[in-house]
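During the no-cost extension, the postdoctoral fellow (Dr. R.K.) reprocessed legacy sequence entries with the updated structure-token encoder. One reprocessed record is reproduced below for audit purposes.
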Amino acid sequence: MSNHTGVAVGIDVGGTFTDLAALHHDGTVSTTKVLSVPADRAQGVLQALDAAQLQAQDIAHIAHGTTVVTNLLLERRGAPVVLCATQGFTDVLELRRQERAALYDLSQHHAAPLVSGPQVIAVPERIAPEGVVTSLEHEGVAHVVATALAQATVCGAETVAITLLHAYGDPSHEQRLAEALRLAIAAQGLALDVVASHEVLPEIREYERMATTVAEAYARPAVRRYLAGLSTRLAARGYPAPRVMTSAGGTLETEEAAHHAAALALSGPAGGVTGAAAIARALGVSRALTIDIGGTSADVGLIEDGEPLVERGGGVGGIPIALPRVLVEAVAAGGGSIAWLDDGGALRAGPESAGAMPGPAAYDRGGERPTVTDAHVVLGTIAAGKWSGGVRISRDKAVAAVATIAAPLGVSVERAAEAIIATADATMARALRRVSVERGVDPRGIPLIAFGGGGPLHACGLAERLGMRQVIVPPHAGVLSAVGLALAPERRERLTSCVVEAEAWSDASMSTLLSASASALGQGRSHLEPRWWLRARYVGQGYELDVPVVPGDPVELVVTRFIARHEQRAGFTLERPVEFISARTTLSSAPWPVRLVRPVRSGDIPPQVDDGRAMTRTVHGDAVVRLPDATMRVAPGWTARALEIGGWLLEQT
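Re-encoded structure tokens follow.
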């Protein structure tokens, strides 16, 4: 990857805090937390580096998790796009899958597509699975190019997206149109980029492929500017250009990341699950649920076989992005989530957040509305006084804010605070069930890895709601996402379409496809190790499962693996043929060689326990433990034991 004798730095820019973790070659980890700068995320990165006081020449690499793409899609601030689609299929983004936004609420509507109306250009061509039906002629190409460039000028588009029917199997028409567009753009000196669907997502399903391609085109200009600006500002101080975390759990160099904007949609949360997986492997845990509770949201994940579970699909702001991603279920239940009463008088928490500015009322930065953090301050689980990140907690401000909820409910401030926390816990517990139970995983037999500033506070309550009896609070819990970013390997991904029934595919053909995919992806990257998965399903099914495979495996063995995985996931098997949809290839470097397991030192065991007891390796609930960058609550009936990696294992007694 990089120079393993230097310092690996991970920087996670969140909605409230920017976290930095520095992994030194001797196995030690140093961390820093500063408030984010919402108007200039790059400034938060620079401030974190300044606070960490790292020498630029000692840094091997900087890995960065960014919410740029997430924010662009949520706030609809991306660049205008012109879309070229097969004639007769220009309304695919409007039609979606013809499902309702809410089954029993006819007033609910899906989010508007990112491009529509005159910005969608019909292309006179058609390719069917059996071959070309309508050829793309020279006159048609010329007309589409002229129309697209004229429309781009009118709407101020920075990108032209091309999504033609069945281009996952035969991209010839897309390639021809893309080449013509690029030549015309260069000849006219225009500042336009061209994005083709076979380069972004060469898989079946026209709607998902078109939506993902348009999302890439929509976000790419802003991502390119952000990363270029950040790299320039880092270089001015002697720092290396950052690697960027992808949704799939690996990092890309800046220039390459700028051309894979859609793959960055879950950049930050993926770092947290990656860090949790490293902790799980160090402890010999193969399966676990994870929850990262930050200032703005709570992100839930699943670890399988010591690795973050990677799936296809998902989306942001109602926009599907059908690329591989670390499974993360995000809910608006962070520490900054604002508590409020709806029209029926019911208590809610979120989705609106106080963010970094003004932040929770307890921060005394101008916030007045009650948040989950304020509720904890009222109950004493977050202590008043100075905290990391330049934050000073005011209990008086928190009490005044929570009182605005307590008064209309006719309860005490303490009772209102308990209700706010319970409301947030209920939201997070539902997300944990969706990630586990809906995938055939019984949460009662696995641990919960809780991190982020609020994870250790809510862990016992969440575990009890799901019947879980073990909680792992990792070292550096409050900044574990940044640790995961620093640990994350360099990784490249490639998808290859291969719609074929297993019975019709020879062992040699499968091995040739896998080997060719790795060769195309790995040119000049011999230091990266390949891994492969085949996306498989029963014929006629509407969903697929990823099955691990290596060149040389018999097709029959891969089918057997699929059947076993399907039974584990869905609880049944079918007497039907199996077909393969696509192959996924990754090339990854080794993770950063940090020693996570090390002897306990006195500084690893926080002495601040709420009843004033001296430093101890075992804490019995009800107790509160002040961690360096978070707070851990040991609930009644639970016992916490310090681990050799510096974290804690909580068990229900």
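The first strand starts at residue 7 and ends at 13. The mean pLDDT is 88. The remaining legacy entries will be reprocessed before the final report is submitted.
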